[in-house]
Design goal:
heterodimer, A: MetI-like fold, two-stranded antiparallel ribbon, 14 helices, B: alpha/beta, D-Maltodextrin-Binding Protein, domain 2, three-stranded antiparallel β-sheet, 18 helices, about 45% helix, about 15% strand
Chain lengths: ~290, ~450
């Protein structure tokens, strides 16, 4: 009977398994191997032991891209979390055209990132962009967005908020799960709406916040398309991120071995950060069933 | 099966039907090849970077080749991100039959043994401008020029006349040029720049190239040493940095961030907001496209140099060159070589160069090429192309990384965050480490042979 079940399962799961083996397991395995080789892509790999790992110690760019990525992650997760909880709370209230507003928040995240990044790049163009034209309408002279690090970061952060839709949907589901009795009990005790939000709603949706923060860390550590299209890493290296550096090493500089090492470092960093957040979660997250 | 299952489950028959429909659709509609290839011809795929009028110019050469014989059929394809895609295609042993690269790609592809020899074409180095020879020839010829350019200073002759400068005597030295820049620049009472005499970062495509105009060089190919912090380089970028210093950084930012309606990279020069600009010869074609009959009274001249390196017979100027290569493991090397050989005939090279508005890569272009060229200053570009003082980016496989380091330093120089001496000190260290690492990788490969 068990064997029958497996034989039925196998053909149905085979396409996914084949895809996983070909496009995830095999590249990861090859990446680990390439990390110990000198590989230009156009010539066969040559074993060099741990030489690529030793290079991490004196790479002058690594610190810059690691810091940029960490800082961008921190800012985008904090701002994104606050904004998406705020939107979810607003959308959970009864309103006219509620379905429309919910769709309007989610729909932007359906669009391909590369297209959205190209649109935002044009939108923030100092000479042609809609952002400066709108600022001009209220008498404000817009900045040269991509001409200075601070403004380029501002543009990137604003762009990163474009994709809060999925997080909002998850928060909305979390908010529906908050027991009404708790709010009623708090109201009877004289707790105001802000107090109920801080002392009832937030603790009750804390597992959802943790989930979104973990997903946010994973996404932020791999931020690539938006800065590649919008700023190309500049000005200077002010918006040069880790995944862009991995890509440059692999496909621009022809050093697959070092790119693989950087990829492993990125993986380890995500693992450690996620682990830390989950550990912190044990202290701050309230699980109703626990 | 409960009610929910009966609504959502997919039967085996439906699933197989869906797979079957997808397979049938792919068989009829997916992966189709061109159908206009005449019977009996072998199709050669040609990946090239150009679109628009540049692609159209190459298509005329391709059409002429296809009509000239009955064995091969070249299929021209405009491909974005060409060099990166080519690396992957060659690594996967499924390269295009013909590949149009940038000259700066050649060191990496050549060192990796990715290019087939073009020695059988029987071309001599002497036929090509001397600055192009290291690009086209390694141990043997393995790259053929398609179109090459030299970069020059473009200016509006009418504006020169209006401000008392002789348009036939453009500035030849940096001090003369500074006088012109200061005279042609217009600033309002608040100090805002309304017209800039020149901006080193507009359009920003050759920010790396100012060193040689001051006698500086970034790289010594003979010793494989970086020279980014050499005195000539520092003097050149002190001059570049003098622009935000003389007009104010914020004023320049506002000038560059001012709202315009034209997305063209040439807009500031065409609209007169920029009096002079560093540009390639193709600008004349774009001027024709954008301005039509109201063509500006433009002219080009070699970019002014520091008086210490002035050499009227051999003007300074950067060059760039698009090249055609045949990747290793192509299916039909004979067909690929036939097309390269056809393209290298002087009349075809000149037809293509003229279509792009560029000079000829050959030492001796024909009289009709110069006379009928769409750029009225083509002789200036031709003179720079064959000059002993023409220069290209450092010809090394680390140039992409080198350029990244240099670009980061130049951004700091532009916004007055560092002096050129400080910024280039750091770049020198970074680039020397890149060169040393590349040499060590070369040694490793050679030791494995």
């Amino acid at each position: 009977m068990k064997q029958d079940g497996f034989l039925t399962f196998l053909p149905w799961a085979a396409p996914w398994l084949a895809g996983f083996m070909l496009f995830t397991a095999l590249p990861v395995g090859l990446g680990i191997w390439y990390a110990f080789t000198d590989y230009t892509l156009l010539e066969p790999p040559i074993m060099v032991g741990t030489k690529n790992f030793a290079r991490l110690a004196d790479d002058p760019i690594l610190g810059t891209v690691a810091w940029n990525t960490f800082f961008f992650g921190l800012l985008s997760i904090v701002v994104g979390t606050v904004l998406s909880i705020a939107l979810a709370v607003l959308l959970s209230k009864p309103a006219r055209f509620q379905a429309f507003w919910r769709s309007a928040v989610f729909v932007p995240s359906v669009l391909p990132l590369i297209a959205v990044a190209a649109i935002f790049k044009l939108g923030f163009d100092g000479e042609l962009g809609a952002a400066n034209r709108m600022l001009g309408l209220i008498g404000v002279e817009g900045p040269n967005w991509f001409g200075s690090g601070a403004w380029a970061w501002t543009a990137l952060l604003m762009m990163s908020l474009w994709g809060v839709g999925p997080a909002v949907v998850i928060y909305l589901a979390g908010l529906r799960d908050v027991p009404k009795q708790l709010h009623e009990a708090a109201s009877l005790d004289g707790v105001g709406s802000w107090g109920r939000f801080v002392h009832v709603t937030l603790p009750m949706i804390s597992p959802v916040i943790l989930f979104n923060v973990v997903i946010g860390i994973i996404n932020a550590a791999q931020v690539f398309v938006i800065p590649l299209v919008m700023t190309g890493g500049g000005p200077g290296r002010s918006t040069y991120f880790f995944a862009m550096y991995v890509y440059d090493q692999a496909f621009q500089y022809g050093d697959m071995g070092y790119a693989s090492v950087l990829g492993l470092v990125q993986f380890a960093a995500i693992l450690v950060l996620t682990g830390l957040v989950l550990l912190l979660g044990q202290r701050f997250v309230y699980y109703r069933g626990a | 099966m409960n009610v929910l299952d009966s609504q959502t489950s997919i039967t085996r028959r439906v699933a197989l039907g869906a797979f079957g429909a997808a397979a049938t659709g792919y068989a009829f509609l997916g992966g189709t090849r061109r159908r206009d290839v005449p019977d009996g011809r072998i199709m050669l795929d040609y990946w090239e970077k150009w679109t628009g009028h540049e692609a159209a110019a190459m298509q005329t050469v391709v059409d002429a080749f296809n009509a000239s014989q009955d064995r091969w059929w070249v299929n021209y394809l405009s491909v974005s991100g060409l060099d990166r895609k080519a690396k992957i295609a060659i690594a996967a042993e499924d390269p295009p039959d013909l590949l149009g690269l940038w000259h700066r790609n050649i060191p990496f592809f050549r060192r990796s043994g990715a290019l087939l020899s073009l020695e059988s074409l029987g071309r001599s180095q002497d036929e090509y401008a001397s600055v192009l020879r290291p690009i086209l020839f390694g141990d043997v010829q393995d790259a053929a020029p398609t179109t090459c350019s030299s970069i020059a200073l473009y200016y509006d002759r009418a504006m020169f006349r209006k401000f008392g400068f002789d348009p036939d005597q453009p500035p030849a030295t940096i001090p003369e040029f500074d006088d012109v820049i200061n005279a042609l620049t217009i600033r309002n009472t608040e100090g805002k720049v309304e017209r800039a005499g020149f901006l080193p970062g507009d359009p920003g495509w050759w920010n790396w190239s100012y060193g040689p105009f001051f006698g500086g060089h970034m790289y010594d190919p003979a010793t494989d040493q970086a020279m980014v912090n050499s005195p000539g380089m520092i003097r050149a970028y002190e001059w570049v940095q003098s622009f935000p210093k003389r007009w104010g950084l914020e004023n320049l930012r506002r000038f560059q961030g001012a709202l315009v309606d034209n997305p063209s990279p040439y807009r500031n020069f065409f609209s007169g907001r920029l009096a002079t600009t560093l540009q390639g010869p193709w600008v004349a074609k774009f001027m024709q496209e954008e301005m039509g009959d109201n063509l500006m009274d433009y002219a080009a001249a070699p970019f002014p140099v520091d008086p210490s390196v002035q050499d009227a017979a051999n003007p300074h100027g950067s060059i760039e060159c698009d090249v055609l290569v045949v990747p290793r493991n192509v299916r039909y090397p004979e067909g690929s070589l036939a097309f390269v050989s056809f393209l290298q005939q002087p009349e075809n090279l000149e037809r293509l160069a003229s279509g792009h508005g560029k000079p000829s890569p050959l030492v001796k272009p024909s009289g009709s090429f110069l006379a009928e060229h769409p750029n009225r200053s083509i002789e200036v570009h031709q003179k720079i192309m064959v000059s002993q003082n023409a220069f290209a980016e450092p010809f090394t496989e680390v140039w992409p990384e080198f350029s990244n380091s240099l670009g980061a330093a130049m951004s700091q120089i532009d916004v007055l965050q560092a002096t050129p001496a400080e910024a280039f000190e750091r770049v020198q260290e970074e680039v020397q480490a890149q060169l040393t690492r590349a040499a060590s990788r070369r040694d490793l490969r050679e030791s494995q042979l």
